[in-house]
Amino acid sequence: MENETILEVREKDGLLILQGVIRVPYTWAAGAVASRFYAGLRDRRIYGIRCPTCRLVMVPPKKTCHRCFGDLNDWVEVGPEGTLQTFTVVHYSEPELHPLRAPFAYGIIKMDGADTGMTHLIGEADQRALKEGLRMTAVFRDKPEGNYLDIRYFKPVKGAK
Ligand SMILES: [Zn+2]
Questions:
Q1: CA–CA gap between residue 10 and residue 127 (Å, rounded)
Q2: Cα(120)–Cα(154) distance, integer angstroms
Q3: Residue 109 C-alpha to ligand 1 middle, in angstroms?
Q4: With 80 as the cut, is the pLDDT of residue 54 above it?
Q5: Contact in structure between 46 and 40 (CB atoms under 8 Å)
Q6: 57 burial via Cβ count (<10 Å: 0-12, 13-18, 19+)
Q7: Assuming Cys at both sites, which of 34, 58, 82, 85 could form a disulfide with 108, CB separation 3.0 to 4.6 Å?
């Protein structure tokens, strides 16, 4: 069968590793809100969406306000800088489970003009100097395609303290 799954289960360092191939042909529509957000990223711009009722600006944007359940369609460009809200540095490498080699960092960055933060990788940073409130900016990949990874990572703004 074309979509046959072959699994191998083995143990490594106390973890069970599942390996196989799953072929699942599919077509996925991102939806109107995510499509517009991703199109913005393709243009190296970050957009949020503002709730007309409670004025909350959500990034990434959503179709419905999680605070007052209002329907959203008021787009606003945010950034280009933001503030690091929180972060974690990963010190454990497992190349079979995650493509990045440790240490690497993730953070939640609240873009200027936004009320919610977006989770992303942190790069070009001294991980020991990361702290809440650090000013950050997005680094886009060379040829954006219209998806979340058009932002390669966020980096501290030069001179930020
Ligand atoms: Zn609202």
A1: 34
A2: 7
A3: 21
A4: yes
A5: yes
A6: buried
A7: 85
User: 48 alpha carbon to ligand 1 midpoint, in Å?
Assistant: 13
55 pLDDT more than 60: yes
pLDDT of residue 4: 64
Question: What are 31's two structure tokens?
Answer: 């939806």
CA separation for the pair 51, 66 (Å, rounded): 10
Which residues, other chains included, contact 30 with Cβ-Cβ below 8 Å and sequence gap of 6+? 38
Gap from CA of 148 to ligand 1 centroid (Å): 24
Say how many Å lie between the CA of residue 21 and the centre of ligand 1: 43
pLDDT at 21: 84
Contact between 137 and 144 under an 8 Å Cβ cutoff? The reply is no
